[in-house]
Amino acid sequence: MWIVELAFTDAPERLAARPAHRERLTALHAEGKVRITGPLADDSGAVLVFDVPDRPELDRLLAADPYFTTRGVEIVQIREWAPFLT
Asked: Could you tell me the residue range of the domain that residue 23 belongs to?
């Protein structure tokens, strides 16, 4: 699994792109590729957990969603995660 941490600014482009981004994440969740996702309580960023086998697959998913390159959205960190409880 992979944890993707985002940071947000108040750029209006981010809010305009969010509905399509959330639709994409909902579809990936239905496919079992996204486990859980959501904004931080203070809306300064978000955390996404992807369940894909490797980094190249994760990179393909991120590249297919223009939200991740939208002004106001920054990928702060990507880490591989090995949970023992799910």
From this structure: 2-80
Angle 51-57-63 from CA coordinates, rounded to 5°: 110
Instruction: Please state the rounded mean pLDDT for residues 68-76.
Output: 95
**DSSP-derived secondary structure letter, 39:** E
| Residue 76, domain CATH | 3.30.70.1060
pTM: 0.92
- What integer pLDDT is reported at residue 85 of this predicted model? 87
52: helix, strand or coil: coil
Please report, to the nearest 10 degrees, the dihedral formed by the alpha carbons of residues 54, 55, 56, 59 taken in order: 130
The candidate with the shortest Cα–Cα distance to 33, out of 5, 61, 55, is: 61
